[in-house]
Specification:
Elements (H helix, E strand, L loop, with lengths): L13 H29 L13 E6 L15 H12 L3 E6 L2 H9 L5 E5 L9 E3 L4 E10 L16 E5 L6 H8 L4 E5 L2 H10 L5 E4 H11 L8 E3 L5 E10 L3 H19 L3 H4 L1 H4 L9
Parallel strand pairs: 1-2, 1-3, 6-7
Antiparallel strand pairs: 3-10, 4-10, 5-8, 5-9, 5-10
């Protein structure tokens, strides 16, 4: 449910009231966060055995709709692709749903085979083996539909109120302009809170993965508000998502080779695009129940 806008109380300035609004939205964001955590732990959590069986692939993950949806029986579209590839190669797949920090440690230590989905940064290749890319995501600028917005360079964002999330990377040009103090950016801890602030008009732009953004809109707001937010077509940058395999055991490289071979087969048969349509055309989610 979207927060309501209350009239300004007598004796309070507009600035003070805005602070109360932001505080209220932050509280709602924290509640949303804890609700999401509860959903993760409500899902079936499989602890990997000390000795991983030869016929089973153990993959760590966490809730990140629409890429990974712990509320769905099959965990969503990426898990469907992974299951298809490994099942056809004769493997079972089991998912370990844990907080991201524990997910990473299990794979780095060799107690699980792979982590999904994840970006393959230069720092991460020191600890993981990166598969062929599963899907390429677009980081776009979300805005209200009553705020017409187009841009060509990051310089066009000067003077606009931008919400961003602590610890997130938004591309080299954006980061450089932010460090130079040329962008008006408020960084907070929660994606959900940023999206709520955008809906309320407290910020004008919110950079977010396109597919994740539309999943958030559908999750956070009632149906009659879904089309109040849209995105500018031009992406801030594009980034592929991968399956990151362990370097700690020989089976990590073997399973990566098996996966890459099966993924290439799906791509060459034009089946991969169909299986990931929800992610490559995320705006269509708002036309589904």
């Amino acid at each position: 449910m979207s927060p309501e806008l209350h009239p300004i109380p007598i004796g309070k300035t507009h600035h003070q009231t805005s602070r109360f609004h932001v505080l209220g939205v932050c509280v709602l964001g924290l509640l949303s966060y804890f609700f999401a955590i509860a959903q993760v732990w409500a899902a079936e959590v499989i602890e990997p055995p000390k000795v991983l069986p030869d016929d089973t692939v153990y993959i760590t993950t966490n809730d990140w709709p629409p890429y990974v949806d712990v509320g769905a029986p099959d965990l969503g579209p990426l898990a469907r692709v992974i299951n298809r590839v490994f099942n056809e190669a004769g493997y079972k797949v089991k998912y370990v749903v844990q907080p991201w920090k524990r997910d990473k440690k299990l794979v780095v230590d060799g107690h699980a085979d792979a982590l999904m989905p994840a970006y393959c940064s230069p720092d991460r290749v020191k600890y993981y083996l990166c598969s062929e890319p599963l899907v390429t995501g677009k980081l776009v600028l979300f805005h209200r539909t009553d705020f017409p917005f187009q841009w060509k360079t990051v310089k066009d964002l000067e003077g606009l109120k931008i919400g961003a999330t602590l610890g997130y990377y938004y591309g080299a040009d954006f980061e450089r302009m932010e460090k130079a103090g040329k962008l008006q950016i408020l960084r907070i801890a929660s994606d959900e809170t940023n999206m709520r602030l955008l809906m309320m008009g407290r910020i004008q732009l919110f950079p977010q993965d396109e597919a994740v953004g539309y999943a958030m809109i559908k999750q956070l707001f009632p149906r009659d508000r879904w089309h109040d937010i849209t995105n500018a077509p031009r992406p801030l940058h594009r980034e592929s998502l991968y399956l990151l395999f362990t370097r700690a055991t020989p089976r990590g490289r073997h399973l990566m080779d098996v996966f890459n071979k099966g993924l290439l087969k799906l791509r060459n048969q034009n089946q991969l695009q169909d299986m990931l349509q929800k992610l490559t055309h995320p705006e269509k989610m708002l036309h589904q129940p």
